[in-house]
Design goal:
The protein is of the alpha/beta class and 308 residues long. It has helices at 18-32, 52-65, 84-96, 106-110, 131-140, 168-172, 186-196, 212-221, 252-258, 261-271, 283-289, 304-307; strands spanning 5-8, 37-40, 71-72, 100-103, 144-147, 153-158, 162-167, 175-178, 201-205, 228-232, 235-236, 300-301. The protein has 12 helices and 12 strands.
Length: 308
């Protein structure tokens, strides 16, 4: 029996699109190929953008494709909106170590928990505020919270992208872990959850590659064991932009009208290098011959001829 514990952790902010499915399939195949355990976690940190109806829809879409899971899914304790006490405990651990400070920057007040578009803030002026200045600012508006990173390089080997190194202070800077309105940030929540759930393997899009060093540092600061990482290529529209939920690019509503589950998996298998053509195939068949060595490293442009 293999002890690999992987996860797929979608954000229910809309219908999944082809790019989401690409990552989901690779996460599923990587676990199933070795007989491991797959966890489905619902990352619904944003109470405005993330809706329960979207979560139930994405679960139904995954089941339609045959991408089933062993833990989580509809179980409430696997939804991040129900895990605030764990994040609060981790926050207090970091605060006891003197690693967090209140931030009153306007940008942080608007910052979404998602990791994309992170603001580099190594020289955040709030890091130097006195207790009196903090009290004066807090009287006008509640603060967000940042974690104070050291001047240190973090290196790791990614199973898909290879060696990667980042200087935390220079390339990342002090980053948010809690928003002014109390919402927990992605970077903290994902580390706490993967640690608590015993995740040993994380497969996700390469847009999150630069988030990994700061997460590895958080694992260390919180006394948690980090997983192995595999950052897979993104699927791009012909104009070079990343497929996104907000644009309804090839979302599951469109895909389910156009393809059978086997035909859609065949397309994804071709894009991920698991077969030369887009011939229809089942998820179980793909798991029996899955190999990471065939997965491309660079982003993939999805043109109309690929979809034909």
């Amino acid at each position: 029996m293999d002890f690999t514990r992987g996860r797929f952790a979608p954000s229910p902010s809309g219908r999944m699109h082809l790019g989401n499915l690409f990552s989901a399939l690779l996460a599923w195949l990587s676990v199933r190929a070795v007989g491991g355990t797959l966890v489905l976690r619902v990352e619904d940190l944003d109470p405005v953008r993330c809706q329960p109806a979207h979560a139930w829809q994405l679960m139904e879409d995954l089941e339609w494709l045959g991408l089933t899971w062993d833990e989580g899914g509809g179980v409430p304790s696997y939804w991040q909106s129900n895990r605030g006490a764990r994040y609060a405990a981790a926050f207090e651990t970091l605060r006891a170590k003197g690693l967090v400070y209140p931030c009153f920057c306007t940008r942080l007040q608007r910052l979404n928990e998602a990791p994309h578009g992170h603001e580099i803030s190594s020289a955040c002026p709030c890091a130097a505020l006195t207790d009196q200045e903090v009290a004066e600012h807090a009287a006008r508006r509640p603060p967000g919270w940042r974690v104070r990173v050291p001047s240190r390089s973090i290196s790791f080997f990614d199973g898909c992208q290879g060696a990667y190194t980042q200087d935390l202070a220079r390339d990342c800077g002090d980053f948010p872990i809690r928003r002014w309105d109390g919402a927990w940030a992605y970077q903290l929540a994902v580390v706490v959850d993967d640690g608590a759930m015993g995740i040993t393997q994380v497969v996700r899009g390469r847009d999150l590659l630069s988030s990994t060093p700061r997460q590895l540092w958080l694992y260390e600061a919180l006394g948690l064991t980090p997983p192995e990482f595999y950052h897979v290529p993104l699927l791009l529209a012909p104009d070079g932009r990343r497929l996104a939920k907000r644009d309804a690019d090839l979302d599951m509503g469109v895909l389910r009208r156009r393809y059978t589950p086997e035909a859609l998996l065949g397309l994804l298998a071709k894009l991920s290098g698991q077969q030369e053509t887009a011939a229809p195939v089942s998820a179980a068949e793909l798991a029996g011959r899955f190999t990471w060595t065939a997965v491309p490293r660079e982003d993939i442009v999805v043109t109309q001829d690929l979809l034909a």
